[in-house]
Amino acid sequence: MTSQRFFTSLVLIMVLIFLGCLSSKETPQVTSLADAYFERTLKSHPEYAYFVETPNTSHALFSSNKIADLKMWEDFEDSLFTELQNIDLAIVSSRKDTIAYWYLLEDLASNIEMRVAQRHLWNVDPENSWQGIWLALAQIQPVENMDLQIQAIDRWKLMPDYVETEISNLRLGLSRGYSMPKTIVQKVINQFDALLAYDIEDSPFMLPGIRANNQKFYEEWKSLYMSKLLPALKHYHRFLTLEYFPAAREDVSVLALPNGQEIYQAYIRKHTSTNKTGREIFELGEFIVARNIVEIEILGSQLYGENDFKKIMRHINNNPDNFFESEEQILETSQRLMTKAKKQCPHWFATLPANDATIKPYSSHETGSGAYEQASGDKPAFFRINLKNPRRQQKGRNEVLTFHESYPGHHIQIALEKEINDLHPIMNLISFTSYVEGWARYCEQLAEEMDLYESEAALITRRAWPSRGMVVDPGIHLLGWSKEQAVDYITESGMNREMALDLYYRSITTPAQLTSYDVGGEEFKSLRSFAESKLGDRFDVREFHSTVLNTGAIPLGPLRTVVEQWVATAGE
Fold first, then answer.
1. Where are the alpha helices (DSSP H) in 239-326?
2. Which of 546, 563, 550, 548 has the alpha carbon at shortest distance from 422?
3. pTM beyond cutoff 0.85
4. Do 293 and 357 contact (CB within 8 A), yes or no?
């Protein structure tokens, strides 16, 4: 055994002893390693407990963003990964351990590969940066009694130091050539403009004080907000405006960063759970987009007597009947579609979630075209919708979005995953985008089989965008596409410019994430075709859906293994 190997093994064993998982003489097995990962994660990131529905005895701590602490976490990942690689999966007997192994192996491998990105040095992001975590925490911080209120004050007193460390990290990033592009930095500045424009009583950061329903605590929280939190928010805003923005990069491609090629490949691995290259994804996307255009032209000929793709899309975009008239109409339509889809699901799924999803419109400081928020604690699952500018929102696109985010899409997959009893709790901490978004993309097609779409426009729309993310994302990062080139390619699918810009900005802030939808979606479609061809009359779509949903959001490689094993034993 080398000295390095001895050191990493010793570190891991000491951690496991501390967690009560192993004695020093035992060989780490999958469950022990998963337990160590789970416990260490919640110790390092105590706020995660609220999102994974795990009992948390302390509500006064928060993650550290200090570089020294981040390095300690990387050392832990390395030791865990070394031990995991020494386990022979062939002798792992339980389903729980096999799935935990799949989760851990891919997550650790992709995390290690992602270190090249040095994301903590340039994480200025309107959706996935520190302010989003604290805003979410403001909605769920426990404040039901005096003890919890004391802990809440203690935790939120940490926020100014957290912000100061964030600024220090970003300064270090600038000195090393890492920054977010100016166009994204400006969006974050605008976000803080909106947050700081709230009246004190209406600020989302005041929610813990409001939710406690205790006037004395409310006044104490208001004092904390005024003396500590608000100055920290203003300080970060000034830093971004006066110091960071002028020094931020102009080029939006990650290739402008040190080791840019490796960074983009690492993002692909993280979001797709595959080793596909950006060029492979780009070429596959172009092939599928061309095939979808042919299908749209056939549909256009049948529905409108028009077989030119661009003219068909113009017809949809210029038809006033395809647009909403009011915020109330968007809300009512979304609710009707959700109810309709749920009613049809028993014909296509053997099991449905016990809990429903609830529609929740975005607040004024939030951005987005739509999203799914999973349930956590007493908070129900939410289908988030945007009620702004109803006369610019298409009804057909709203149908596709609804089925993608709620039934039969994200809600069924994520809510059912929470009900699986024999999965290790690490499945609450680890998720693979290509599975989660791939399932939702597959469900856009499934919704047509279920006869859920109500408009002709929806049949066109649900074919117009898919796989374009596989083209536009590497187009931006690898091929030097301009903003207008990317936006034009997106709007060609029928999206308005505002939505196209949202996707463009998302591709910049989270490279390769747009590719994950269709890398995953095409895999789900491929697996279903494989099962249908092998099983013939014995194929049961309800059983297929149960098979792909009852292991949690596993990487795509193991997902294919699961389906192949099901096909081999079906009917026995």
1. 245-247, 260-272, 278-304, 309-318
2. 550
3. yes
4. no
Give the start-to-end residue ranges of the domains of the chain: 3-118, 130-257, 267-526
Q: Angle, to 10 degrees, between the axis of helix 456-464 and the axis of helix 433-449?
A: 150
Six-digit token string for 87: 């386990």
List the chain pLDDT tens, one digit each, 572 residues. Answer: 443 443 334 333 333 333 344 333 334 599 999 999 999 999 999 998 887 777 777 899 999 999 999 999 999 999 999 999 999 988 888 999 999 999 999 999 999 999 999 999 999 999 889 999 999 999 999 999 999 999 999 999 999 999 999 999 999 999 999 999 999 999 999 999 999 999 999 999 999 999 999 999 999 999 999 999 999 999 999 999 999 999 999 999 999 999 999 999 999 999 999 999 999 999 999 999 999 999 999 999 999 999 999 999 999 999 999 999 999 999 999 999 999 999 999 999 999 999 999 999 998 777 778 899 988 777 899 999 999 889 989 999 999 999 999 999 999 999 999 899 889 999 889 989 999 999 999 999 999 999 999 999 999 999 999 999 999 999 999 999 999 999 999 999 988 898 899 999 999 999 999 999 999 999 999 999 999 999 999 999 999 999 999 999 999 999 999 999 999 998 55
Number of other residues whose CB lies within 10 A of the CB of residue 494: 24
The tokens of 117 are what? 């990105």
